[in-house]
Amino acid sequence: MDIKALVVILMSTVLVNNYVLCQFLGICPFLGVSKVFKNAVGMGVAVTFVMVLATAVTWPVQIYLLDKNGMGYMQIIVFILMIGALVQFVEIVLKKYIPSLYKALGVYLPLITVNCGLLGVTIVNISKEYKFIESLVNALGAGLGFLLAMVIFSGIREYTENADPPKSFKGLPLTLLSVAILSMSFFGFSGVIENLFG
């Protein structure tokens, strides 16, 4: 296994191909939970955990069950069911062991189930024909990229809450403009990772 290739996959998924800011997947929890730093970190860690776990479960199911039996067309349905079950597991664990985070995340915790970023990661792993370890690294990078975007954007939102923008920019317009500018900054990493580690 080439360590350099794994580093490229990890770093490019975190920075260049960030699922939230560059591929615009998982926007709903990103916008909904990023107001408070603690909640943003909690959601980012939960999504990262579920992404890696979902990849660890869905990759073998795709390769050894669906593909071997000619049922690749069932991929999306099977993956959604598996991701839903994993999110329920995370919800039960948080409710039992970290009730404060469970209450803080509230309705956004079940939203992890319908976070298209999760489904996107599992499908991209298969479509790019990553091996198992590469898929796990890609999922970890996607989760860390989501966490990074959440943390940065929660800081931006805390700052903009104290700002006094023109009336037409208050609320959602300022939030969306902030996301757009943050997204453009991540596009600046294009080509850097591949040339740095390639």
Q: Could you describe the 3D structure shown?
A:
- With 198 residues, the chain is mainly alpha-helical.
- Helices cover 73% and strands 0% of the residues.
- Helix 6 runs antiparallel to helix 7.
- It is globular.
- The two termini are 15 Å apart.
- 35% of the residues are buried.
Oligomer: single chain
Total number of beta strands: 0
Q: What best-fitting shape do the alpha-carbon axes yield? A: globular
Strand percentage lies at: under 5%
Low-pLDDT windows of residues: none
Q: Biggest β-sheet: count, sense, barrel?
A: none
- How are helices and strands ordered from N to C? HHHHHHHHH
Task: Please compute the radius of gyration using only Cα atoms.
Answer: 18 Å
The CA-CA distance between the termini, in Å, is: 15 Å
Overall residue-averaged pLDDT value: 87
Helix content: over 70%
Structural class: mainly alpha
Number of helices: 9
